[in-house]
Write a sequence for this structure.
């Protein structure tokens, strides 16, 4: 029996609804209105914070190795930096890394320029250390951005892992956040994994699985 054009259109529409519903379970909704450069602050830094490209390869690094990367530049906007300061930072920021460590803190940040001061689209700070008893001053920051990430990366779930100082494996892009160049109480370096592209947890069998 031949089907009408209307029947075909209705079936396609129903399939699209099902697919969209399924995708909403897997991924958080991407932002629609905020440009990568944000709405203030350093537009070059914000564009790096908001990158969405997926790494094609990963360099294994420890928390300590990232913590001891050279701090360069200043807290000023990157447009004012000298080429001698900017060049080594650019080279490192082209590197995607995978870091194993212990999660000791997780919290959603407040409105900031990178997210156009949105009250709902906000980054989540994760603090990683090499050893479960290390303090925050020996930590690096890994940031989950509000673009697209699994809906399983909730603040509650990550805080639960942090309370247990769970061992995690985090992947993402190296980024130097010069705005935190002088901060040594909440973190051990201004180098971050930002944005995070993968979070894995280790099971009792020693195998890694996606969060």
């Amino acid at each position: 029996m031949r089907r009408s054009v209307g029947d075909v259109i209705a079936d396609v529409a129903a399939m699209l609804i099902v697919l969209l519903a399924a995708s909403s379970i897997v991924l958080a909704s991407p932002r629609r209105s905020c440009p990568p450069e944000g709405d203030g602050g350093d537009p070059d830094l914000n564009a790096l914070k908001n990158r969405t490209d997926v790494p094609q390869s990963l360099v294994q690094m420890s928390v300590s190795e990232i913590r001891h990367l050279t701090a360069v530049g200043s807290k000023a906007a990157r447009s004012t930096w000298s080429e001698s300061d900017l060049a080594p930072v650019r080279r490192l920021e082209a590197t995607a890394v995978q870091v194993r460590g212990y999660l000791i803190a997780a919290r959603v940040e407040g409105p900031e320029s990178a997210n156009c001061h949105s009250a709902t689209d906000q980054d989540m700070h994760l603090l990683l250390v090499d050893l479960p008893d290390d303090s925050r001053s020996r930590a690096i920051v890994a940031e989950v951005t509000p673009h697209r990430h699994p809906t399983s990366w909730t603040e509650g779930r990550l805080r639960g892992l942090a309370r247990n100082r769970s061992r995690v494996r985090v992947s993402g892009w190296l980024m130097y956040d010069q705005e935190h160049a002088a901060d040594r109480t909440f973190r051990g370096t201004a180098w971050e994994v930002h944005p995070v592209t993968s979070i894995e947890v280790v099971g009792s069998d020693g195998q890694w699985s996606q969060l």
